[in-house]
Amino acid sequence: MIVKLLIDGGDMKPGPAIAQQLGPMGVNMGKVISDVNEATKGFKGMKVPVELDVDEKTKEYKIHTSSPPTSELLKKELNLQTGTPDHKKQKMGNASIEDIIKVAKIKHTNMLEKELKSAVKSVLGTASSIGILVENKEPNELIQTITKGKFDKEINEGLDETSPEKRQKLNDYFAEVKASQDATLELEKKEAEKAAEEAEKKTAKESTEAATEEKKEEAPVEEKK
């Protein structure tokens, strides 16, 4: 029987969900957790898809691991906890082409793309969706230039190490981007709060006026003598 799990790399823990899936099979849960953690220790800090092929008669099992989702690998490379809530307004990091090649090499065997260059473009698409710049540019912009031959040398040689000097330049550029977008987001937040406050005041005023009109209608009319 195949049991599919999505666990924290190297840090699978016992819990109700795990017990519900493995308990009825009678396997040694402690040993399963230990073996899975050993098999996924190279992906600490990332979500990892795991399949357990369990023989219900002998209680023996085989562990099959897949590489983590592309988004998880990208976040790991840039030490990000999460992706962006809005990829158009808020960027979360600035990757090098070497970072992208590194992730593409990990994912390549699980992709339909036959060439590494195609895998690189696929990874760039994911980078765009989670708000990561690449080489100071929008990833979708780079996809077009890569199609035309840019970074062919790096891709063909499979270069996946970023020099400290280049990393610093990428980080410096992103620091400027972040400062600008943070200022914009703060301004938008204040404008939204002001609009909400004005709407609240308007609603309160309308409620007061409606209550006043209602009282007027309910007041008894005095008869003339």
Summarize this structure briefly.
The chain is mainly α.
Structure description:
- With 225 residues, this protein is mainly alpha-helical.
- It has two domains: 2-65, 2-Layer Sandwich (Ribosomal protein L11, N-terminal domain), CATH 3.30.1550; 70-182, Orthogonal Bundle (Arc Repressor Mutant, subunit A).
- Helix content is 53%, strand content 12%.
- It contains eight helices and five strands; from the N terminus they run E-H-H-E-E-H-E-H-H-E-H-H-H.
- The strands form two sheets. Strands 1-2-3 form a three-stranded antiparallel beta sheet, with helices on one face. Strands 4-5 form a two-stranded parallel sheet.
- The longest helix is centred in the C-terminal third of the chain and has 55 residues, at 164-218.
